[in-house]
Amino acid sequence: MSINCTNREALDDFLRTNLKESRYRHSQGVEEMAVRLARLHGADEEKAAFAGRYHDIAKNFDTETMDSYVRKYGLPEKLIGNNALAHSKVGAEILEHEFGVSDREILDAVRYHTTACKDMTILEELIFVADVVEDNRTYSDLEYYQNLAYTDLDKACLEILEYTIGSLTTRGMVIDIDTLEARDWVLNKIKEIENGK
Ligand SMILES: [Fe+2]
Ligand SMILES: [Fe+2]
To answer: For residue range 12-26, what is the model confidence (pLDDT) as tens digits?
Structure first.
């Protein structure tokens, strides 16, 4: 199976042109980690590679460019001036409308890689996790989170979400509703699996 995309070469050019060197390396790291996690947890490796590679395609846009894409694609007003949240939503729109990517699962994995959301597919979950645990990350608990991701994707997802929510709370920042819903959803999913055992 190959993924629908009008011009893969142009897409790669776009990625290279628009990402800083370190962000490009991170994208390669997420691609590799996503494939590793897909293999371990039984997801589509080709889709994982694709979503991992292009998930941050809009990450290094300046605010003016980002805002123009938010308006072009009629995305929510709350994304204006908020590159951290906007880049995942804008990235999905660019992949779909400028490069003909039509796979819903890939588009949603890119769209929700920053916030996560409830009812995620394995692909969405593993891209969310791979983004945090790829090999180029440098925080002290990296190995712990990588091992958790290899053995239990849901628990890795839960711990990352709880860390994120805690950290945003401590810093007095607003938490996206999708992140809060994702945490409860994955917690319930884990409980249901445990109860079913
Ligand atoms: Fe990102
Ligand atoms: Fe990323």
So the answer is: 999 999 999 999 999
